[in-house]
Input
Amino acid sequence: MRRPADARPAHALRAPSVVGPRLGVLPLILAALVLGACASPGGDDALAGPAGRSAAAAPGASDDALSAAFAELVDTLADVEQEIRRSPSFGTEAERVGGYRHLLRGLAKGLEAEIQQDPDYPWFRILDFWLREGGDNPDQRYAFSPIRGGETYRIFGRLGSAARVELQLYAGKPWAGTGGSAGYLAFEDLALAEDGSFEVWLAPTPPPEDFRGSWLANPADATTVFVRHIYDDWNDAPTGDVHIDRVGFEGRRRPPESEDELAARLRAAAATFRTTALTWPAFVNRRYAEARAPNTVAPPYDTYSLGGAKGRWMSGGYFELEPGEAVLLRVPPTRAQVQGIQLTDMWFASLEHANLISSLTTRQSLLSPDGAYYYVIAAEDPGHANWLDTGGLQRGTFLLRWDGMGEALGQDELPSAERVLISELRELIPGFERVPESERERTRAARRRHLQDRSHR
Output
């Protein structure tokens, strides 16, 4: 029999009441990572985290800027570890492992974004299945670069097999509630050549008359340019790319970096790490776990006002399941150009999606005879084509996206969800057809190949 939608499993997932020692193996990992990263400067200024001392400081250097900044980074790592261990997401063994992976991914992001990157000598930082955070969409490749507001950049690349490419400017960090969107170039407004190549003039004023690409105004408060390649079909065609130059700095010799400059970047890395690590589990708890009953779906909303893509609508929910149970979603087709669904863990990272089918677009999904897509969220294979594999997780989130929408979804386009027994699915899904394991294996192999090409890994 079906359990009521608001009923919770009898077991309680709680964080341990006793936390571990203040300093463990993580500072040692940090030391190795930072020493390897310090050779390349970059990044923006950020608010400093807590000050502190590091046992790693060299003799005679205990009061210099680099030693103090390094100590701050180490102390921040230890402080945030304790915050993570107190999180409501720090429950089962799988969630505890996920929590420490979340810490380490946040650290890697902070080092790359604030120490390696530079707005004058820019390169894109790629967020893909390797470093996952913030409800990252498996159907997208994200590229980020710091920029200087009011300056001129040239962005160029290829669409490849993506269905859409979109550019967005951030002022501050809207994903953390400290900024907003500063500009947007939709796919519909992007000038594409016949071979799928594109160029964008990112500048406060229009480009030269002989420029044949697109223009995106760069206001004085812009801090980051963000490019999304969006894929609705994970095939083996070339996946496209994107690159960036600051105009006038191409080939210019990079000046030496001072100790104070690198110290400032170390402090910025600590601040970015802290914000990344603490924002997402709190977001999952506030927006999903505490916002509504588990295994139900929220009404779709426009994401642009929150720093998301223009023309994108999103919905989602929080799943919490016992063995033998599943969440069954009914999702009608819409006029969206790209429509998909995915799972995340309690740290708001996408689930592994090269060897796990944890996301699907409508192009990858089976349409039932009643004209709707039925998706099954479960830890075990239910046999249905549109299975979203939790990888054994008992709880997490599911996210639905509609890209390229001009207006809100109609009543007949809204999704629905309910918790059911896996044994009931054959009766509940119109046209249920069992998928053999050999087909699952072929699908996972094709996904892995596509992601290898997309991420160049």
Observations:
- The first helix runs from residue 26 to 37.
- The chain has three domains: 26-116+256-275, 125-246, 292-455.
- The longest strand covers residues 164-173.
- The CA atoms of residues 346 and 396 lie 5 Å apart.
